[in-house]
Design goal:
Layout lengths: L1 E7 L5 H14 L4 E6 L7 H4 L7 H8 L5 H4 L1 E2 L5 E4 L10 H15 L7 E6 L10 H4 L5 E6 L3 H18 L5 E8 L6 H11 L4 E5 L3 H8 L4 H4 L4 H15 L11 H12 L2
Parallel strand pairs: 1-5, 1-6, 2-4, 2-5, 6-7, 7-8
Antiparallel strand pairs: 3-4
Length: about 270
């Protein structure tokens, strides 16, 4: 069983990438479960065709110990099992703590089971507190970082690599690689390839910026559903295949900010 997690800067396209990976794996005949770890509960929106109406935390608040499997597991496109951890109301409670409670509840219910692949889509660019649970507690073993060639996206990716390195010494978690979600930054692919090499990992995929992604999103669909014969759909299929066939992963070697800044300047000014 593949136990995967996607991290990256907020707004970098993790959920879109995660949903298209899940869809591609499912269409290839794999059983897949995607778990959104974001209070916005929108990780599985493109798979369900709507925002999830019943998150784990909402259901726990409403039903307490009477929560059932059917309350929190929803079937999406291509049979992907979709779960949203949920979170507190804005300004109330701790979203990180919410992830801890949600994942513990799923474990008690045996809601995830034994699919071929579990994919955790984790909030934002932090790997502390509850947001580190998929890494710290061994829920996920192969971490993929989604980034662009923008400075702050790479800064977040480097910080995540620091977290992965810290937890790698305690268990099986490793960095599976970097997924580049293009923003058409100058020399972007070359920069991210150099960044991945410096982190002692690989560039798993370079996803080009294509308006078909937004066209699919406004219809609340993955690209695999909306335009299965498109070039962009093939990019996601190839990414899913590389992740599925990957047999190795790395302990990253993150850099300090000054080195990262110099790297971005070098490629950005050429």
């Amino acid at each position: 069983m593949k136990k995967l997690a996607l991290y990256g800067k907020g707004g970098i396209g993790k959920s879109t990438t995660a949903s298209n990976i899940s869809a591609a794996l499912a269409l290839a005949g794999k059983s897949v479960c995607q778990i959104g770890c974001d209070p916005k509960n929108d990780s599985t929106r493109l798979l369900l065709g709507r925002n999830c109406r019943s998150t784990v935390l909402d259901t726990v608040r409403d039903k307490g110990d009477a929560v059932t499997y059917d309350d929190v597991v929803h079937t999406g496109f291509a049979g992907v099992r979709c779960i949203e951890a949920g979170g507190p109301e804005p300004g109330v409670g701790c979203a990180g703590r919410g992830i801890i409670v949600a994942l513990q509840t799923l474990e008690e219910l045996d809601a995830v089971g034994e699919p071929d692949a579990i994919l955790y889509d984790v909030l934002g660019d932090v790997v502390c507190g509850g947001f580190a649970v998929p890494i710290r507690e061994g829920y996920a073993e192969d971490i993929y970082i989604v980034t662009s060639g923008e400075m702050m996206a790479l800064y977040a990716a480097n910080n995540i690599a620091k977290g992965v390195r810290r937890f790698a010494s305690r268990g099986k978690v490793r960095l599976g690689g970097i997924i580049a979600n293009s923003r058409k930054v100058h020399n972007e692919e070359e920069l991210i390839m150099a960044f991945a090499k410096r982190l002692n990992t690989q560039l798993v995929a370079f996803i080009p910026r294509d308006p078909i992604v937004q066209q699919a999103e406004i219809r609340r669909q993955t690209v695999l559903e909306y335009a299965p014969d498109s070039a962009q759909a093939e990019v996601y299929r190839q990414l899913a295949t590389r992740i599925w066939e990957s047999t190795g992963s790395d302990i990253p070697t993150p850099m300090d900010f000054e080195e990262l800044e110099a790297m971005v300047y070098h490629y950005g000014s050429r």
